[in-house]
Amino acid sequence: MKGYCLPLSPEGKAQVVDPPPWHYGGDIIQVVFKADPKEVKQVLPEPLELGSNPGLAFIWFVEWTSVSDVNPDLAYLNPERSQYKECLLAVSCRYHGEEGFTVPYIWVDNDFTLLRGWFQGFPKKLARIYMTRPHPLNPKMGPIGPGTKLKGICEGHGERIAEASLRITGKASVEELPKFRFFLLRHYPSVEDPSRPAVMELAQSVVENVRVSDVWKGEAELYFYPSFFEEVDKLKPIEILAGHYFSLGMTIKGGRILHRY
Amino acid sequence: MKGYCLPLSPEGKAQVVDPPPWHYGGDIIQVVFKADPKEVKQVLPEPLELGSNPGLAFIWFVEWTSVSDVNPDLAYLNPERSQYKECLLAVSCRYHGEEGFTVPYIWVDNDFTLLRGWFQGFPKKLARIYMTRPHPLNPKMGPIGPGTKLKGICEGHGERIAEASLRITGKASVEELPKFRFFLLRHYPSVEDPSRPAVMELAQSVVENVRVSDVWKGEAELYFYPSFFEEVDKLKPIEILAGHYFSLGMTIKGGRILHRY
Amino acid sequence: MKGYCLPLSPEGKAQVVDPPPWHYGGDIIQVVFKADPKEVKQVLPEPLELGSNPGLAFIWFVEWTSVSDVNPDLAYLNPERSQYKECLLAVSCRYHGEEGFTVPYIWVDNDFTLLRGWFQGFPKKLARIYMTRPHPLNPKMGPIGPGTKLKGICEGHGERIAEASLRITGKASVEELPKFRFFLLRHYPSVEDPSRPAVMELAQSVVENVRVSDVWKGEAELYFYPSFFEEVDKLKPIEILAGHYFSLGMTIKGGRILHRY
Amino acid sequence: MKGYCLPLSPEGKAQVVDPPPWHYGGDIIQVVFKADPKEVKQVLPEPLELGSNPGLAFIWFVEWTSVSDVNPDLAYLNPERSQYKECLLAVSCRYHGEEGFTVPYIWVDNDFTLLRGWFQGFPKKLARIYMTRPHPLNPKMGPIGPGTKLKGICEGHGERIAEASLRITGKASVEELPKFRFFLLRHYPSVEDPSRPAVMELAQSVVENVRVSDVWKGEAELYFYPSFFEEVDKLKPIEILAGHYFSLGMTIKGGRILHRY
After folding, report:
1. How many C×D Cβ pairs under 8 Å?
2. Nearest CA distance, C35 vs chain D (angstrom)
3. Chain C residues with CB inside 8 Å of A160's CB?
4. Strand locations in D36-173, DSSP E?
5. What is the pLDDT of residue C55?
6. Three-state DSSP class for B74?
7. I need a surface site. Which of A177, B6, B12, B190 has the fewest CB within 10 A?
8. Which residues of C touch D110 (CB under 8 A)?
9. How many domains, in total, are found in chain B?
C-alpha cells in the first residue's frame, strides 16, 4: 500500500493529503495585539519561553489556495481539494534564545488541511470562517484602499469563536509585519494509554519562497467569545497593536524536530 | 411590520434580503456552447422564441460579492451575508424580436441569493459550487495567463450536476463575450390550488453599471450529468464555441414585467 | 414546461419541491413560554389580534422526515431530499375570534423546505440546527425517560440565534400540548416596485392526519440572542410555561386564503 | 497544558475530542458482499492475510450518537459534538489465524470523529453522508417492516463515492450479522521525512458493551463510483451476500497494539 498518510491505498490516490512540499497563496486579515503574558505562558509547551515582547500575538483570517508539489494541477482537478479558510492564532515565544511564535489554536474548514496541520503541529479544528472579500468591480465597493472595511468571523459548534475587524487607513511596508517563524507541538495519542502520547515533539516549520505583497494597515478590533469547547478567550487582547491586510505566498517543506518529550 | 420580503419584522432587519438595487462584483468562468435547439425550445416559456442563433447557450461559474444599496456595509458587518457562489445556465431566446437569454437552471449556495433570485425569475436551487481560485503569489500557480487551468464544479443532493473546464490561451476583448440581457420567468405557487400559480409573469432584468475587465479566452469543456432531480443534461453541449474567464461588476435595479400569463 | 414551482422543466423533475400534499414525521423539542404581549403584537399582521392568552408562544426544534404525495419514495430515492431540521417560533393570535398561532420566525437547513415554507407563509431562512438525539442503545444514554436532557441550538450567519433546553421529568398527555392551528402571512415581492408586494395574503394551513405519540414533559429553558440580522430576541421568554418532547406525524394539504391585503 | 489530544490547553477543554472510553449508539444500513479477493489483498497491511472467506466485506451507513465517558452530558451540552454520520467499509482478514476485519476506507462528517478515528486506525476523511430515516408517524412511511426501503449515499469533494440500497423483507437474528472484530493500521507521518512514518502499528480495537437490536434483513444493492481521489471502486461487489438494518450500541475503550512496523 502506498501513501504519505492515511488512507494508504494500492495507488496512493486515496490519502487525505499529498506529501510536502506544499505551496500556498492567500489574502490575510491580520490583527497584531498584546495578550496577557501570564495567559500566554500557559499555552507555551516547555522548553518554549515567553518572547522578548511578552504577550505579543497575532491572529490571521486567511483564504488559502494550496497545491502540493507532486500534484500541482490539484486546483484544476478539483478546486475543492485546493482551497480553505483559516483562523490562526499565534503567540510569541522563544526557543533557546530564538524568537518565534507558536500556534495554540487554529481553525480551518476542510479535512486535507486539518490533517496536514496536525502533521506539522498546527492543532486544527473544523469551523466555518467568513472573511470580507472586496471585489474591485462591485459598484459600491471599489478597489481596496483607505476606508475599506474588512471583517473575519470564526464560528464552530454553533458558537461565534472569534471576530476581527479592520478599517484600512493606508499602505504599509512588509517590514511592519511580524516575522512568522513557527515553533509547533506535534502530538499524537497512543491507542493503548490515553495518558501517554505516541508522538510528542517540538518542531520548527521549514518555510521557503515567502513573498508578500499589497500590504495595507489600519484600525483593528478583535474579540474572542466564551465557549464550553474553547479556551481562546483567555488570550483576549489587552491592547491592539496593529491591523494589516496583505497577500502572502510560501512553500512549506515540512519541519525540523527541535525537541522530543 | 416592515420589510421588502419575509420575514417581515418590527424594524425590518430580519428580512432574508434587502430590497434592490443590488451591487455585484465577481470572477466568472464562462463556457459558450451550442445546445440542441429542440431541447432549448422546451425550456422557453412562450412568448419567448428561439434566438437568431438557435441553441446558443452559456454557463457561468461565479464567485460573487454582493451588497445592497441600503446597506453597503453588508460585506463588513457580516461577510457571510455578502458572498456566494453560483452556477448559471443561460440559453438564447427572442422576445418580440429582441435577442436575449433566459435562465432555465441556476444553483447558488446561500439563502439570501436563493430568494433574491426567485424574486427576479432566476429559478435558484441550493448546491455546492467549487471554482479554481488561482492566487498570484502561490509559488506553483503564478499570475493568470496562457496555460492557466480553471475548473467549475456544481454538486447538489449528493450528485455532480455540472463541470466546466478552461485552459487559458490568451487575452480576449469584451466584445467577444455574449451580451447578457435576461428574460426571466417569475413564478410563485398559490397555496390553495397547486395547479394555478399566484404569480406567473415574464420579466426583463434591469441592469446598470456593467463593467468588465481582465478578459481571457481559452479551450473549454463542459459536462452535465444525469440526475433524478435535474433535467439540465438535456441541454448538454453539442458544440463548444468558446471559453472565457473575466471579472464583472454590475447593479441590478429590479425588473420590468413584459408579459403576464 | 411542467412543474408546481420553479424551476419549471420539460418533465417537471427539476422543481425544487413537489406539490402538496406533503407528509411529515418528526421528533420535537418544544418550549411553551410567555413573551411580552406588546412585542408579540408587533409581529401580528392585521387583522390578526392578540390571542386570549396574550403573549403565549412556543418554539419547536424538529428533525423532520417529509415526503410528497406524488413521490412517496422520495426518502429512498435520495434521503437528502426528505430530511431537514427546523427551528420554529409560534406566537398565539386570534383571527376573527378563532384562536391560533402565527410564525414570525423560522429556520431550516435545506432549499426544498425553505421554499415550501415560503409558499405556505412560513418565513423560512437557512440556519444550522442541532438537536440532542438520544440513542437507546448508547451505553451512557439509555432510553428516554425522567432525567434525559435535550437541547436544541439554532445558528445562522455565524451567530447563535436560539437555544432551548429540556430536562425530562415524566410522561405527559397529548392534551397538555398547545393546539397548533396556523395563520400565516404569504408575501412575495414585486420585481418592479419593492414597496408593493406581488402577493400578500393571510392563509390558514390545511393540516390532516395529525398523530402525536411519546409525549414527555420537563423543566425547560430558552434563550434568544441578539443579532444584526434577526429580531427574534424581542420575543424572548418572560416566563417559561412548559417543556415537552414528543413525536408528531401530519399531512399538510396546502392552505386556505383568509384575507388579501 | 492539559489534554488527551490537540489542541492542548490550560484546562483541557479545547481538545478536539475527549479520551476514551467512548460510548456509541446508532442505526445501521449494512450490505454484506464479496469483493475481488485480489483487490482485498491489496489493502491488507502485512501481517494481515486474507480471511477464511476471501473477499468477504461489508459497508455500513450509520447515524451515530456518541459521548465520552468523562463528559456523558456532551449530547446535551452541544448536540453538534455528539452526532455524526459515517460510511465505513470493512474487508475480512486474518491476523495470526484470528478472523476479523480491517477498514481501508471510511468517511465521516465532523472533526471530532475524524481525529478520533485516526487515533484508532480508522483512516477517516470528510464527506457528506445521507441515509433514509423513516419516521413511524409519517403518514406515508409508517413503521419499519417488510417493504420499507432505505438508502445510504456518501459524497465527497463533489463526487458520489458510494451508494447502498436496501429493501426490507423480514426480521433477522443477531447471529446473521458478521462479527466485527477490527484490526486497524495506525499511521502518522513524520514531519522531517515524508517517506518514514512517525507511527505505524497494527492495533486491535477494544470494544465492550455491544448490544444489537431491531435486526431486519432484505434485498440490497451497492455501488462504488470512480474518483480521482478515491480507490474504493476497486473493492466493488462481485456478489451481494446480504443486506441488514439494525441498531447497535457499544463502548470503545481504545486499542491494543499487535504489531509495530
Report:
1. 143
2. 25
3. 158-160
4. 49-50, 56-68, 83-95, 98-108, 124-126, 128-131, 149-156, 159-171
5. 98
6. helix
7. B12
8. none
9. 1
Residue B115's identity, in one-letter code, is L
Say yes or no to pLDDT of C126 above 90: yes
Measured between alpha carbons, how far apart are the two ends of chain A, in Å? 31
Q: Give the CA radius of gyration of chain C.
A: 18
From C178, C184, C182, select the one nearest C32 (Cα to Cα): C178
**B16 located within any domain:** no
| B142 pLDDT tier (thresholds 50, 70, 90) | confident
- Alpha-carbon distance of C38 to B143, in angstroms, equals 59
Closest partner residue to D188 (CB to CB) among A45, A104, A199 is: A199
> With the CA atoms of A234, A240, A246 and A252 taken in that order, what torsion angle do they form, in degrees rounded to the nearest 10?
-40
Q: Is the distance from CB of D248 to CB of D26 less than 8 angstroms?
A: yes
Give the containing element (helix H, strand E) for C120: helix C111-120
Give the CATH number, domain containing residue C219.
2.40.400.10
Rg (CA), chain B: 18
Q: Answer yes or no: is A48 within a domain.
A: yes
Q: Does the residue A193 lie in any domain?
A: yes
Amino acid at position A51, single letter? G
Report if residue D36 sits inside a domain. Answer: yes
Looking at residue C47, what is its pLDDT? Answer: 97
Q: Which residue ranges of chain A lie beneath pLDDT 50?
A: none
Q: How many CA atoms lie within 13 A of A214 on its CB side?
A: 16
State whether residue B37 is helix, strand or coil: helix
Given CB atoms, is C135 within the 8 Å cutoff of chain D? yes
The answer to whether B72 faces chain A, any CB pair under 8 Å, is yes
Neighbours of chain B (3+ CB pairs under 8 A): A, C, D
- Domain extent, residue C173, equals 26-260
DSSP secondary structure letters along A37-59? HHHHHHT--TT-EE-SSTTEEEE
pLDDT category of residue C142 using cuts at 50, 70 and 90: confident
> Measured between beta carbons, which residues in chain B are less than 8 angstroms from residue A249?
135-139
Q: Which residue is it, cell 481538545?
A: D15
